[in-house]
Amino acid sequence: MDLSAIPLFDHHCHALRRSGAVLDGPALRRHFSESADPAMTPHLLHSLFYRRGLRDLAELLGCAPTEEALVAARQRIAPEDYAGQLITAANITVMAVDTGFRGAENYTLDEQRAFLPCTIYEVLRLETLAEELITATTSFAQLEDAYRAALTDLRSRGIVALKSIAAYRGGLQVQARSRAEAEAVYPALKEAVRRDGRVRLSSRPLLEYVLRIGLEAAAVQELPVQFHTGFGDADADLRSANPLHLRPLLQDEALRGMRFVLLHTYPYVREAGYLAGIYSHVYADLSLTIPFTAHGGVAAIRAALELAPTSKVLLATDAFSIPELFYLGALYAREGLAGALQQLQAEGWLIAAEVEAAAQQMLYGNAAELYGVER
Q1: Domain ranges of the chain
Q2: N or C terminus of the chain: which is more exposed, having fewer CB within 10 Å?
Q3: Which of 248, 228, 244, 246 is nearest to 236 (CA)?
Q4: What is the mean pLDDT of each run of 10 residues along the chain (375 residues)?
Q5: How far is CA 280 from the centre of its chain?
């Protein structure tokens, strides 16, 4: 089954890195793992994702399937042209970019719009917004006013969703916090700014207070909120990233106007599928799970669909920094989806017409509807 003609709505990804220092083999390799341990670099040569990725990229670029040949091939093309070539080959026609994972080394969205052949929207990361405003303000009242103002009329600014990384900052067990609790930790965060020049919002009273403000703003504006769940960077405690911890928020009547997108989900794919199967405002995403789990893509899609309707499952790349991850993420999303749907058809769970419709839904249609983007 060839799904290459169906465009991918890449509803969760990150900005590309600007051209700068030449990317060598080890630096390229490290993008194929979530590990922050430098000693893992030689082992990545033997990861299934990286070995298969080298072969598929070599076939696309017309070079030998080696790290050295790939590095040489990418250096022969202007970075912006190279990125455009891979996005075109991936048939990614829409991106929703999480701008919270960025720095001066990354392109802005407007810069990417100038050279990428796709429509680009923004996903606003709540914790990053709060960190920027903690740095810029001199009182908690000023912080709260600026934060609330930044969350008004979001769609008019090209923002189609909000994003939370609470899972990275203590987990998904979100408590109700009072304004007084949040205000009490503000001075310590300002001291961190004075000392280090920046702040990392990990204090749960303030994090949970501003998160609630963000969720309520999303509910009023009927915007989805993406929650990191499951695996990711090494600073996440996987035990506290189980999406089942979000159940009190999912059942909160005040938040029924917003939709929850459970990102990544591995190894909690079944849990995410369960939640998407019982709550109409919950969706399960398999970005990062595909492509990083290599041959596990088929199993992950099948697991999500054990309970979730095909209208509630999303595919994306979670790609960052280098265009290779966008291409491979899209390639393996389609490959895994084709394998899962073929198996389900062979087992009698789907007929041919339903297979085609499900592929359209999970690659593009579900995201277009969820984020309110014209198809």
Answers
A1: 8-18+95-370, 20-77
A2: C
A3: 228
A4: 97 92 87 94 97 98 96 93 97 97 88 97 98 97 98 97 97 97 97 93 97 97 97 90 98 94 98 98 98 98 98 98 97 98 98 98 98 83
A5: 21
